[in-house]
Q: What sequence folds into this?
């Protein structure tokens, strides 16, 4: 995707990068006179060395050309979200089909070579798109500035991006550091071949003061930009789009869909919603655990109270039985004393001691046994 005001050389740069006229169709010839923001997609198949590259170039004619540019980035944002949504629908079908990946993997945002920093429309656009697409800022028609002016201009742009918390695409650090420090790229595009002062034919622009060779790194960053995007980091751009920007859109979309089905409006970050649900679940488990501990504690207290009550009842019964036995023992002792008294009273009345009387009775009984007892040789039955 290429975005920027008209007259910054967007179409020329794209044609220079791919060495073809991508905007050659008849329906695109009126793009230069239209001033309404419209997203246009151009598809072309490039072939080099037997390798084919299917390329979709998304242009935004009319961006920033109106008197009132309020919300001029909405059509671009909608287009990026629509492409994400198409890919999501194809991915979540029951019967998946192979759908061409038309997501926007890189956005070349053209900055006017004013030398005064970013405009308000530049900041607002990148602020709304930096978490949806890989933004690569470029300074269009940089041959309007000197090298010293470009250095200061780039420093101003990077400072503004940092102050506004705008994240542009960061090329992996395994490449040469000289190319890492080129962002934003100062580029010049040209579709014609000119002859420089030495008589060499080059692709560039001819001015009264000299010739600009767009493929010379001393003149502009065009060659570095094309090499980094098309040769070294094309797959990384796709990976970042798929793993970062698309996953973020997918998470937000599915979370909003799930909450809307439950009648809840999405008013916070999906990760925060998940964290709140986890905290709520933990709180519910804690309450259940406390309730179970209370029930267990009450059961133990009731059982303990019952055991104590039974123990008290048993102790009271034993005390009663013990007292009853003590009472009976005292009664028996009292009766024994009365018996002894009766024995002494009877012996005193009859003049015979009870022990002697008992002795005489015993001898009398022994005599009767001898008198009426059986013979020594008992009778035997049968023959003698």
A:
């Amino acid at each position: 995707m290429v975005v920027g005001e008209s007259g910054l050389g967007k179409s020329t740069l794209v044609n220079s990068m791919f060495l073809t006229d991508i905007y050659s169709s008849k329906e695109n010839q009126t793009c230069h006179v239209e001033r309404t923001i419209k997203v246009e997609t151009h598809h072309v198949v490039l072939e080099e060395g037997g390798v084919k590259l299917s390329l979709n170039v998304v242009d935004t004619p009319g961006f920033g050309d109106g008197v009132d540019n309020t919300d001029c980035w909405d059509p671009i944002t909608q287009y990026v979200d629509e492409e994400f949504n198409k890919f999501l629908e194809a991915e979540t079908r029951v019967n998946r089909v192979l759908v061409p990946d038309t997501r926007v993997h890189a956005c070349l945002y053209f900055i006017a070579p004013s030398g005064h920093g970013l405009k308000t429309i530049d900041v607002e656009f990148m602020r709304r798109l930096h978490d949806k697409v890989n933004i690569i800022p470029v300074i269009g028609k940089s041959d309007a500035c000197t090298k010293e002016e470009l250095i200061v201009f780039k420093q101003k742009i990077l400072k503004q991006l940092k102050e506004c918390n705008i994240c542009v695409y960061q090329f992996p650090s395994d490449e040469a550091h000289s190319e890492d420090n080129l962002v934003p790229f100062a580029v010049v595009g040209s579709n014609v071949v000119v002859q420089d002062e030495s008589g060499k034919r080059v692709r560039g622009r001819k001015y009264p003061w000299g010739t600009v060779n767009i493929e010379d790194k001393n003149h502009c960053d065009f060659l570095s930009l094309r090499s980094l995007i098309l040769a070294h980091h094309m797959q990384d751009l796709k990976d970042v789009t798929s793993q970062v920007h698309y996953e973020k859109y997918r998470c937000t979309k599915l979370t909003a869909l799930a909450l809307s089905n439950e009648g809840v409006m999405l008013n916070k970050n999906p990760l925060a919603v998940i964290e709140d649900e986890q905290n709520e679940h933990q709180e519910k488990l804690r309450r259940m655990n406390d309730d179970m501990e209370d029930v267990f504690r009450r059961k133990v207290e009731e059982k303990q109270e019952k055991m104590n009550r039974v123990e008290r009842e048993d102790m009271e019964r034993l005390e009663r039985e013990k007292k009853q036995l003590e009472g009976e023992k005292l009664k028996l002792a009292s009766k024994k004393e009365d018996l002894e008294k009766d024995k002494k009273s009877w012996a005193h009345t009859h003049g015979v001691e009870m022990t002697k009387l008992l002795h005489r009775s015993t001898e009398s009984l022994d005599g009767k046994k001898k008198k009426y007892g059986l013979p020594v040789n008992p009778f035997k039955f049968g023959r003698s």
Remarks:
- Strands lie at 2-3, 40-48, 51-59, 107-111, 135-139, 185-186, 193-195, 201-207, 210-213.
- Residues 236 and 381 are 134 Å apart (CA to CA).
- DSSP finds nine helices and nine strands in the chain.
- Confidence is low (pLDDT under 50) at residues 25-36.
